[in-house]
Amino acid sequence: MKVLITGATGLVGSELTSLCRSRGIAVNYLSTSKDKLVTEETYKGFYWNPDSQEIDMECLNGVSAIINLAGASISKRWTSEHKRKVLSSRINTLKTLHKALKRIDTTNISSFVSASAIGIYPDSLSEYYEEDDNRVDDSFLGDVVAAWEQEADTFTGFGFPVAKIRIGLVMSKEGGALPEMAKPIKYYVGAAFGSGQQWQSWIHIHDLARIFLFVVENTLEGVYNGVGPNPVTNNKLIKEIAKVLKKPLFLPNIPQFVLKTILGEMSYILFASQRVSSKKIEEEGFVFDHQNICKALENLYSEPGTTENDTTIYRKEYI
């Protein structure tokens, strides 16, 4: 098998690339930086520029599956310019891939999987969301994810299975939200956000990489939530991070208006509540290695070789 991965240099892409290579799956990847291109027998980089719909067509040679992870980070201040970049980076990526696929025979492509996000689900403390819920959150993130998925749906016209993985809060020491949450706790100024009752549907990064590969290998189609089976409240998450770091929590919860003053509109992602189900992917036969937040955090913060699940951890190879 040979997989084409976009966004392979990002947090999830690096983990997925390592997982594929550990299983003997060849990887082609696309990069907007020519300095990051590597050419090995089973690991090759190709240049593209989605903003101008430029792509090296050689990237598709021998590919039987495509995994799209590309998109600008939402974890930067939401200026008008960055909002534009967040949306255009996701849409232009898919448009460029679609245009490229129209130029080749796609008979041998058996799977197309695109990242999405649980930010599409409306903010709620009481709802428990499954994939067949068609409501969209009335927010910038909700609008972005809806447009992102609509663009991904255009690939159904090729005839191969198309799947979308709605990613939750990714637990990784290498980047994303967890190091930012852990930093103030390490310096004894950690606290939950707002009421702390908002639901956080999290997933260990290795399980997320496994879900993408599972969907490819089983040629699944449709929407799947990329979250673990046991969401927790923000209060619980912060307490468990403090516990694994062996640090006390003694400050009151941080008021919403304080973080909005500091972060602007982006603070929305800290207070949005989405309790999301993983039942659908589990019914397909996927089994999570990390089902509970306490064990997941212990796994992430332990030294290699000190946990029974350390065989599931792979060194990141940033390209």
What does this structure look like?
This protein is α/β, with parallel strands linked by helices and 319 residues long. It is 34% helix and 17% strand. It is built from 10 helices and 13 strands. The strands form 3 sheets. Strands 1, 2, 3, 4, 5, 6, 7, 8 and 12 form a 9-stranded mixed beta sheet that branches. Strands 9-11 form a two-stranded parallel ribbon. A two-stranded antiparallel sheet has the order 10-13. The two termini are 21 Å apart.
Which descriptors would you attach to this protein?
single chain, 319 residues, alpha/beta, Rossmann fold, nine-stranded mixed sheet, two-stranded parallel sheet, 13 strands, disordered C terminus, SDR39U1
